[in-house]
């Protein structure tokens, strides 16, 4: 039997996009894990970690904002479906706006806060990377150069 | 390159600064008492973690149980708890109470124990101080000490039971950390441990709700303003139409008898000023203001009645009860069915979340319900204060005793607060703003109440006795322990016995030092500095009025006068509810179609909204309109007449006649009495039955004359004047002269507010409603300023049929769960209460008998350590042990490498030294 050869299409992803996707997944996973802790301040961390994988601040912001907010959105959908969570949002909104029917505003606000926190974390992470990376590259270059010199001198 | 680097640093710094600012904004409370937004809105805490419905199947592991416990919740979320022992039963009830009503329980205990400001800040500081000063917590502590002594002496095990109950509450709190009701998330605090003292504080909480009052003080102002003669006239007429609760002490005829007589009061302006200022100041305290409003509108009261086998269509007694209290979300009562095998307990009824007994309900043998007696169980005393530490008592300078409290105020730390106690009770006006003005430069006066609840009292223990009672004797024996709030206990049993016992502690006063002409029996505040009105004992239980197996075959209490004129030995009451609900229930039971009543008829009676005062007064209004000269018979007046003539006195929300009647009644009462009362600034109006009597018997009474006009007015003048005002006011309100569109429901609405003021989005209503203050199904409103919102009425309804205990019915005006996103938050309110419906009480003896189709969810309490905990512990131990062993093995095989590394390290250190 002759084997049929299938030409698999090659997924041609440039490294930056690949980094972005990886960082997005890491941000999402970390966000998910941190929702189990009762310390909301930690919500800045997933964005920071995700941001570290991105060389530009813009990508860091996108990665953090998307990674955090999407997980929050899925979580919100689950809570609304399973725990009648929208009622809580509506009642809480009523305390602020003085009447029922404003739950959607709180819902949108929560998502915006997710975007904001993710974006800020992502910006910090990528900002750190922008400062550290050139130094790291310089150090790497310096480390490589003397090695070559040593070989040459031995010769 | 360097410029780029700098740019990057600046960008990062900017983002970090923005992040810090944002996090700070989310970390500080921005809106009043609401927690920081970060704590509320971010996942992991706040709104995200609040509980929803209970799991369909839940297993609770608690090694302290005697045996397994099974809880079935029915379709209304009502728990049916089947336990082997009553200790386990108490534990399980504590757990389900916490699961459904934790915040309500927490708020109630904080209220009594002066701990509200701990969670809401100084907004509640005055309230905390006032509640602590009242002495509720102090006397709950004393009661607890006594219960411990009783337990140690082997007299009873009630202390053990409330301990088990507390364990159940605390186990829920411990195992649901971070999953507390939404109110905790919004206010930003967590529940603390529940203690037996908290349970006993709830008893005092109820005592306050039902008996705490300022009537003596208001009455003094009224008597002082009107004069004793006028006041006595009102009081003499206050028995008009009353049908006493206990029918075996005579009945009142229509002629009134002057009860009091005497000369003018000798009250100094300083005392009156102190009282006036105090009464103004207490309205600054939210809980007192709310209580006064409820009392003013006659919201607090209740109905209960029982018919015997002769009157009942079933041949066995039927017992009904609906207690009228403030409406809240959640409602005050929590339905539960409790079964304990070891003691043979099988009781169904209404519990208070926080206490381990059924307060009203039935077991397999007896049923019971409560209404407020209206006994005078509280007296106010005024004393001259000589300095900060002394006052004059009975002519002698006497030192105060003191109690000191530390109140934790959120955001402000601890505040120390000292209460001064007189011989008769705590000084309550000295920490409020009561500065005596210079013009009244005299001795400082302090006000102190003596209250029967400020005693060691055992109401929950009495209820515990009721839960187990098998007959009248056992029930009556238990009711000896019921002290405050004094309640009319309606009773029925499977043997056919019916009874009514208005019981509680009723003080006997020594009025020998009370000046002649001054109203005694605790009617007015006493001069404590002269030693007036000392309590010299309590009316003996045996001598309190009571009725068994009445010849009329039924017994009714609806807060009307307790006894007729033949009960003379002790003074029990000095003011009464006007008695309309009692009259109507008596009428309905008397005039039943075939002489008997069944369950459906009982439901109709509980839901009855026929207004007895309207039926008494409206004929006079109709007569007055009909006899008007034709020039005054305008179209609108005749339309009003048509509505009234076609009316059956049902306060139906869809009719216009109730609106006309209620508005007219306000004006009629005002125009009859206000000219005299306002002229002398008297704060209390006579009861409605006094107006009814004047209308019927004294059309030319002096009270009908308007003292501000030269003419002499009579009843008809006032009736028509009130009608003119009514029409004008309703035209304004409804904006149309189509009288038929003046629907009562637009003006009379029912509101079920959340426990916390301002949490309106958690409230239910307003709903248009039938009824009024004096209908059997009550909902009192003030419509003077437009729409009136009834905030109280029936807090539960139940009907017990002794011919078939599966045919018992009940309803509460909320739901079982105080979890605002649960379907059981308001299901009974919306699907039953507002529709005039009831649910069946499932009363099955065992889990085997309990039908599966009535199980919505269940909890199994297991007498074992939580296997999840055991798995985690075992796994941790195994992992820890394996890692340890691995380290040892690796260390052993790599010992040479480790040694050499260690040597290297030592050499390096040694090298540096050298």
Can you give a write-up of this model?
The complex is a heterodimer of chains A (155) and B (914). With 155 residues, chain A is mostly helical. Chain A has helices spanning 15-34, 44-51, 57-83, 85-97, 103-154. Chain A has one domain (17-35, 43-140). Chain B has a domain at 875-913. Helices cover 38% and strands 18% of the residues of chain B. Chain B is built from 26 helices and 30 strands. In chain B, the strands form six sheets. In chain B, strands 1-30-2-3-6-7-8-9-16-17-21 form an eleven-stranded mixed beta sheet, covered by helices on one side. In chain B, strands 4, 5, 22, 26, 27, 28 and 29 form a seven-stranded antiparallel beta sheet that branches. In chain B, strands 10, 11, 12, 15 and 19 form a five-stranded mixed beta sheet that branches. Classes of the chains: A mainly alpha (155), B alpha+beta (914). Chains A and B meet through helix 3, helix 4 and helix 5 of A and helix 1 and helix 2 of B.
Number of domains of chain A: 1
Estimate what percentage of residues of chain B fall within beta strands.
Answer: 15-25%
For the sheet with most strands of chain A, the description reads:
none
N-to-C CA distance of chain A = 57 Å
Query: What is the SS-derived class of chain B?
Result: alpha+beta
Mean pLDDT of chain A: 83
Note the overall shape of chain B: globular
Intertermini distance of chain B: 46 Å
Mean pLDDT rating of chain B: 92
Low-confidence spans of chain B: 434-441
SSE pattern of chain A, N- to C-terminal: HHHHH
Question: Percentage of helical residues of chain A?
Answer: over 70%
Strand order of the largest sheet of chain B: 1-30-2-3-6-7-8-9-16-17-21
- Radius of gyration of chain B from CA coordinates: 32 Å
